[in-house]
């Protein structure tokens, strides 16, 4: 395959506009652009470059640098082209003697206050100031640079992270990923504006006046690490000089080529240009044409890619006969032969259903498709499961029941047209930060926000954003709150009756309306159960029903409950009740936690479904796959992960191939997971590092990072994005090749030579992917499924003219309390979540400098609960449940309510899931991570279990020296 051809990537100076066409002439050339377009952008459209420094097309025009002045016939003066809108018949001159003289004079002033160290500057060859000096023909500077003594001393006193320059302020090198060099600053404001307009953090300001003006990251005692900066990189990308510069560029030099690929972290699916020097990755730059991120990024996608070359990475296959033995490195042939013989031997001894696979949401669609094909076509059973079921299977079930399809209804662009947003069980600023930035921008423009969460997340109140309502419900009562919202809407006659009559099943609605109208579902009746103020809940319901376009975004705080599927159906009911379906700015939008959760589900990773969400019991579907694969498919659904573990303990499940997933850290009830893995006779881990699951593995197959593979990811908005090979796999093989090698070692006879062939097979067997191939993705950049004959370029909005199932279905959502109850021994409720700098189990981000922000999991506890237990800030506390116990340090905060505690799960030494139970969603078996009854008590340090676990992990990771 050829490298992706990057579309026109020029910086057009100001953002594109939409409007009626306007025709003008620029330097004698006629150009037609939309109304509202700046003269600068119109010139760029005509191929005429106007010099600029403060302007960039990712930010609104500012007009401060005065380098882009032009002459306009009939107007006095020389206006800035970036802030001057076009007008019909306008005649513009961009290259007169007058404007050339003005530009040169302006540039002289900039250069007079700038160090002339271009030859040794890290931005040499990648500096807009340098480029513009050449563009205006500056060859000499008549002014002497000021010494800046007073301000330099001021900065030097507060900042010891850099070496002081006698003429300018010292560098701030506190951030692990980029430096701030005030001496290079031209005060263009681009970084400040990017922080405000793009990121929405408002961490940067301009301090001082005149030649003393410089960017400030906060108060006089703040540097870039201690400030509110979230290290998204927007300021670095916007900076036209070396003021804000990646440390990787300073160390390695300017990149000379780029490859467009897709981030491997959360479900937003940001597009990046991986910029390289030869085969060495220098930096990741968010791709301006990426339709999910629109040129923005977060600290993980932008900077946390160093794990790809981390010393912990395993690059050679390893085997061992027993888990108490050290690993020994072997060749690929020996490892694959060993694994294949083990698996076939187990099937001969215990039956063909005695082995299975687990796929990962961090792998590509093509890789995931092959893994489920491995179990169905080669193993001869349906024992395939995925972490996608462990987090978002209630989404598939709930939305499938209500709408007829199991995915989000909108694209991310839709948020720009919403008027009222409900965020329930999600923390976008930490889990999906690029989407959160777009949401915050819309909120600053006037949209209203309702947050339903036990914890006060940042969106409740932060810089320039405040929720209209925060409903801090008790963990486990989502269904009661959602039904109470519906109760208010129905009983007060706020529903959209026309939408319901035309788009939904009216008879089912009548039954549903009678159910929710019952006084037992009123906000007042459920207040004691949910802990939510009834008047606030009523006000939130009225706002959502009457506030205009209403959109609902939800996350794992909805799905990871015993009633996760019920809550999803309740959310679908709310959207249909208010007519918020089928147009921009509305809809039901699950925020997927990992990069390919959606794709993992689409590819048939569940034990009861073939690709495209079709049940294995359907003979016609099996026959289609059997005709292509040339093997029979078992009509009997296979085992889910907890069933595999139960069967292993019982002695009937003996072998597992686990690709890219760390179930010992990520799945609930760690002791049970460990017991199941220990009972298996062959565990094959296919991953980057010796993860926690590998403690019980017999075969380790080295994996490849997203930088080393071709394929596709499908993000939370159903967008199929290309992943492109940035560098060759360090282990020798991409992950799809390893799966093929294992299949062939077991006699499969597969002959794929490129992932595009796997996508062709996906398209041939999966209706929603029927029109997808790599040629289309190269042409379009990305497409959203369904992509088929009816929708050849994809489907941004679902259910526009009707629901996939025909009529929308209202479903009764009866609240059923979880079996996990608080009591005298365990009076508190634990809920879990993520933090911005870390990702999932932390295997990748813990091996980057992101640990600067989060080096350990902490337990958030309300000061009242802490005081009654004698716990102070930073104390070691024992966190105990009916399942197990662990220790971690306490953080006292009123983000959580009394009676609720909260922690993250990014660090294996905490192993938070030793606390969580094996309760799960009634429909999908999705674990109930978010509700665990616990007790907190002071502790002196790690528990006996943690010490035993650490010792066992250390023993299991011994590797024999390679033979000479």
Sheet with the most strands, sense and barrel status = 7 strands, mixed
Q: Count the helices. How many?
A: 30
Percentage of residues in strands = 15-25%
CATH architecture of the largest domain: 3-Layer(aba) Sandwich
Q: How far is the N terminus from the C terminus?
A: 39 Å
Strands across the major sheet, in which order? 13-12-27-26-25-14-15
Rg computed from alpha carbons, rounded to a whole number of angstroms: 29 Å
> What is the mean pLDDT?
91
Shape: globular
Spans of at least 5 consecutive residues with low confidence: 148-166
**Domain module count:** 4
Structural class: alpha/beta
Helix percent band? 25-40%
> What is the CATH domain class of the largest domain?
Alpha Beta
The name CATH uses for the topology of the largest domain is Rossmann fold
Total DSSP E strands: 36
GO biological process, one term: formate metabolic process
Keywords: 2Fe-2S, 4Fe-4S, Iron, Iron-sulfur, Metal-binding, Oxidoreductase, Repeat
Family: Belongs to the complex I 75 kDa subunit family.
Protein name: Formate dehydrogenase alpha subunit
How does this model look, in words?
Keywords: 2Fe-2S, 4Fe-4S, Iron, Iron-sulfur, Metal-binding, Oxidoreductase, Repeat. It holds the Pfam family Molybdopterin. GO terms for molecular function: 2 iron, 2 sulfur cluster binding; 4 iron, 4 sulfur cluster binding; formate dehydrogenase (NAD+) activity; metal ion binding; molybdopterin cofactor binding; NADH dehydrogenase activity. This is Formate dehydrogenase alpha subunit. β9 and β10 form a beta hairpin. α9 packs across α26, α10 packs parallel to α26 and α17 crosses α18. It is globular, with a radius of gyration of 29 Å. Strands 13-12-27-26-25-14-15 form a 7-stranded mixed β-sheet. Strands 31-35-32-34-33-36 form a 6-stranded mixed barrel. The chain is an alpha/beta fold and 964 residues long. The protein is built from 30 helices and 36 strands.
């Amino acid at each position: 395959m050829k490298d992706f051809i990057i579309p026109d990537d020029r910086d057009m100076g100001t953002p594109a506009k939409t409007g009626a066409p306007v025709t003008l002439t620029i330097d004698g050339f006629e150009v037609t652009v939309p109304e509202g377009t700046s003269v600068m952008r119109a010139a760029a459209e005509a191929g005429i470059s106007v010099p600029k420094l403060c302007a960039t097309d990712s930010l609104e025009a500012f007009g401060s640098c005065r380098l882009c002045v032009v002459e306009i016939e009939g107007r006095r003066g020389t206006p800035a082209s970036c802030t001057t809108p076009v007008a019909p018949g306008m005649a513009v001159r961009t290259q007169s003697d007058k404007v050339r003289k003005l530009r040169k004079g302006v540039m002289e002033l900039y250069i007079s206050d700038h160090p002339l160290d271009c030859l040794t500057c890290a931005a040499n060859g990648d500096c807009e100031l340098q480029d513009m000096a050449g563009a205006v023909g500056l060859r000499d500077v008549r002014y002497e640079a000021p010494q800046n003594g007073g301000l330099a001393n001021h900065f030097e006193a507060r900042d010891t992270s850099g070496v002081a320059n006698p003429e300018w302020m010292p560098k701030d090198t506190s951030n692990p990923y980029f430096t701030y060099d005030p001496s290079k600053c031209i005060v263009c404001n681009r970084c400040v504006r990017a922080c405000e307009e793009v990121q929405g953090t408002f961490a940067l300001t301009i301090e001082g006046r005149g030649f003393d003006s410089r960017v400030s990251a906060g108060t006089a005692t703040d540097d870039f690490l201690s400030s509110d900066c979230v290290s998204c990189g927007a300021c670095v990308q916007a900076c036209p000089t070396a003021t804000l510069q990646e440390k990787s560029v300073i160390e390695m030099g300017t990149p000379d080529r780029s490859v467009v690929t897709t981030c491997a972290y959360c479900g937003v699916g940001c597009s990046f240009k991986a910029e390289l020097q030869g085969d060495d990755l220098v930096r990741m730059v968010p791709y301006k044409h990426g339709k999910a991120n629109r040129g923005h990024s977060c600290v993980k996608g932008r900077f946390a890619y160093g794990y790809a070359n981390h010393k912990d990475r395993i690059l050679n296959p390893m085997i061992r006969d027993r888990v108490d033995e050290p690993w020994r490195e072997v060749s690929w042939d020996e490892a694959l032969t060993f694994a294949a013989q083990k698996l076939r031997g187990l099937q001969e001894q215990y039956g063909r259903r005695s082995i299975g696979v687990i796929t990962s949401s961090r792998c590509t669609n093509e890789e995931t498709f092959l893994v489920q094909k491995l179990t169905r076509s080669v193993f001869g059973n349906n024992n395939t499961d995925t972490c996608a079921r462990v987090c978002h299977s209630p989404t598939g079930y709930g939305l499938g029941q209500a709408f007829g399809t199991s995915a989000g209804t909108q694209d991310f662009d839709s948020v720009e047209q919403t008027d009222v947003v409900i965020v329930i069980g999600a923390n976008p600023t930490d889990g999906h930060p690029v989407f959160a930035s777009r949401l915050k921008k819309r909120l600053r423009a006037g949209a209203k926000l309702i947050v339903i969460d036990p914890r006060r997340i940042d969106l409740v109140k932060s810089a320039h954003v405040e929720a209209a309502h925060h409903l801090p419900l008790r963990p486990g009562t989502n269904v009661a709150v959602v039904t109470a919202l519906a109760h208010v809407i129905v009983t007060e006659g706020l529903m959209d009756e026309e939408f319901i009559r035309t788009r939904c099943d009216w008879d089912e609605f009548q039954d549903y309306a009678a159910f929710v109208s019952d006084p037992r579902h009123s906000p007042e009746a459920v207040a004691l159960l949910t802990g939510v103020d009834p008047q606030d809940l009523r006000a939130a319901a009225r706002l959502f029903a009457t506030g205009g376009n209403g959109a609902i975004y939800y996350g794992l705080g909805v799905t990871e409950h015993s009633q996760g599927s019920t809550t999803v159906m309740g959310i679908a009911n709310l959207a249909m009740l208010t007519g918020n379906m089928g147009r921009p700015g509305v809809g039901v939008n699950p925020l997927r936690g990992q990069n390919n959760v959606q794709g993992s589900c689409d590819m048939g990773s569940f034990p009861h479904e073939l690709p495209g969400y079709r049940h294995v019991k359907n003979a016609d579907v099996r026959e289609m796959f059997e005709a292509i694969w040339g093997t029979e498919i078992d009509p009997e659904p296979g085992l889910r992960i907890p069933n595999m573990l139960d069967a292993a303990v019982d002695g009937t499940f003996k072998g597992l191939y686990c690709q890219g997933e760390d179930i010992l850290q990520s799945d609930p009830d760690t002791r049970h997971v460990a017991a199941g893995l220990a009972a298996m006779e062959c565990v094959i881990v296919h991953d980057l590092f010796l993860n926690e699951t590998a403690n019980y593995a017999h075969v380790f197959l080295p994996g490849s990072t997203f930088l080393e593979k071709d394929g596709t990811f499908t993000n939370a908005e159903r967008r199929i994005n290309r992943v492109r090979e940035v560098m060759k796999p360090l282990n020798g093989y991409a992950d799809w090749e390893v799966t093929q090698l294992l299949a062939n070692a077991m006699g499969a006879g597969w002959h794929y030579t490129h992932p595009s062939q796997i996508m062709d097979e996906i398209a041939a067997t999966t209706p929603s992917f029927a029109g997808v191939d790599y040629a289309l993705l190269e042409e379009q950049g990305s497409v959203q499924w369904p992509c088929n004959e009816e929708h050849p370029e994809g489907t941004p909005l679902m259910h526009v003219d009707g629901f996939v199932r025909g009529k929308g279905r209202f479903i009764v959502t009866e609240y059923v309390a979880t079996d996990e109850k608080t009591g005298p021994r365990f009076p508190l409720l634990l809920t879990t979540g993520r933090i911005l700098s870390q990702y999932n189990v932390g295997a990748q981000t813990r091996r980057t400098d992101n640990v600067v922000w989060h080096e350990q999991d902490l337990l958030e506890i309300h000061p009242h609960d802490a005081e009654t237990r004698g716990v102070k800030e930073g104390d070691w506390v024992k966190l105990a449940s009916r399942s197990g116990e662990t220790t971690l340090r306490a953080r006292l905060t009123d983000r959580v309510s009394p009676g609720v505690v909260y922690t993250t799960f990014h660090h294996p030494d905490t192993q938070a899931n030793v606390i969580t139970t094996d309760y799960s969603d009634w429909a999908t078996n999705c674990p109930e991570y978010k509700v665990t009854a616990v007790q907190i008590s002071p502790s002196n340090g790690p528990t006996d279990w943690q010490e035993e676990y650490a010792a066992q992990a250390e023993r299991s990771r011994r590797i024999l020296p390679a033979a000479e």
